[in-house]
Fold each of these.
Amino acid sequence: LIKKIKDLETAFYLKSFPGTMPEGLQIAFAIDNQSRKQTRGYSTFADQRISTFYRSLAANFKKHFLVNVLYYAGKPIAYEIGFSVGKNYFGSQIAFIGEYSSFSPGKILLIKLFESLSTKHLKADFGSGDNFFKRLFSSGNKQLYKIVISKNVFIRKYIASVCIGKNALFNKMTQYRKLYGMYRSVKKILGK
């Protein structure tokens, strides 16, 4: 079992492409086209204007624009795009090919990216927003703002209570990570 795990670990590797290498964005576009985001209808690069914008960012930010690609057995399966500014790295986009979801490629990519960033003495910042990955890799969070816009008082109260419930659920999930991991495994086995 340990040998299988070691073999699996060496099958994954991360390669970073600066903005001066257009190959990185081409790989990211191809992965995004096969990603879970694409199948769910919110692909980052489905709109040609967004692709053009990212090409422009790559051309102008050059070495400060990075496309990080995770490979499995020589095949690119996930990407992450970000910017290095001073001693900080700002993550922007991430996606992976859906058929590899059983490997948790997003987590693997981020772990390998953090290892790479630490050798360059860069601090990671993945911006605002709240998701499981951000809570998994950070020691805390800070609410920057909370705005609910609606003329209807009921809707304002409902949205505010849903936000409180979501935060409580996230906190419980991070408190009981192993239990949540077992739940996901059982769910995957049952195919639901």
Amino acid sequence: AMRWWAENGSITVKTEPVDPAQIIVGNFTLRKGETLSATVWMENVVNLGAATIVLAYDPTIVRPLVCTVHQELGDGGYCDMQNGRVLANLIAGQGITITKMQRVFEVLFTPLASAADGNSSPLTLDASNFADAGAEPLPWSVLNGSIRISPGDLSALPLISVGPVPAFAPLPLAQDGRLTVTMNISAVTGL
């Protein structure tokens, strides 16, 4: 004889995107002596409530100067620049949906003086928090990039010098302890 039994239960069906959210940063070339704005993008995100996106870089090659979170996304956010990585924290209490590529944050980089031409810094993305408005984790994936250093025209860079004193000569100090010098600024436009 066959025996069977039934138990009460429930099924919860979640609607999630077919594909995970994409977090994207491109490949860039940065000339020595210049700056570059590296933009991080997102697409295919449904009901994003909060995210902490990490952009890692090689601190021996480039240095971030400033990070800007695009405020048109949700309720705002902020950046935390650390040695070797930048964290962008996004908050959207009501949840936001991004179907096509949207700028999330930008980091302004400059090459280190010691970075050799041809050196590259990987730009590696990660998300330590990526959740919907109900605090449920959302699926995500990344497309990483890099910054390659190329030669720049350093002779065209602004130069600030103290003069008219020969190089490495001591500056004249007055008896009252004051120092009077002339500052020379060259190769600057629009000052």
Amino acid sequence: REDWRIPFPFVQVGNGFEYRRRDFWPFYGYRRTGGLERTYWLWPFFRFEKRSAGDESDEKTFLLPFHWRSTPKEAAANPAKGHPAPRASFKLWPLYGTRLEADGTRFTEVLSPLWFKDPKGLEELAGVFWRLGSRSQRPDGERRTTLLFGLYESRSRPGESRDWRILGGFWGRETADGVRRTRFLYHRLGK
């Protein structure tokens, strides 16, 4: 492998086995090494990445770090054989974000201030405090909606009525044991 960096870091040129690099920072850059291929134009305004490993790949597009899209692709997406369906994410930071999970659940949020992916960590624990609204829809048709930083929540399932709560149950309607009930002051009213 051979790299030339003159004048560093503005011009970098390299060649080698499964390696190629052309950087004329900040105007244009290209790098291919192993399973990674990365290109940028007018850094940091536009960047494209593609990572490949075997028959799987992950393509990412970034536009002025406020917009990015990620589309992993499996060559043989077949749930019956243990291969999950393709998933994707899109973010217009910090206003909007959406992602499609491997199980087919689609999650959308308005006000999405995290610039990194962390759906099972910080987003799940503290997301209600910064999201103006969110909605998830599962493949079985179940929908969950949260509005106004968690003050209003609703859930609906196909063939059933819609449940909703304000302030976590201060007031709301729900179905429990096949009976439709009202909640007030965090208690169920009625039989």
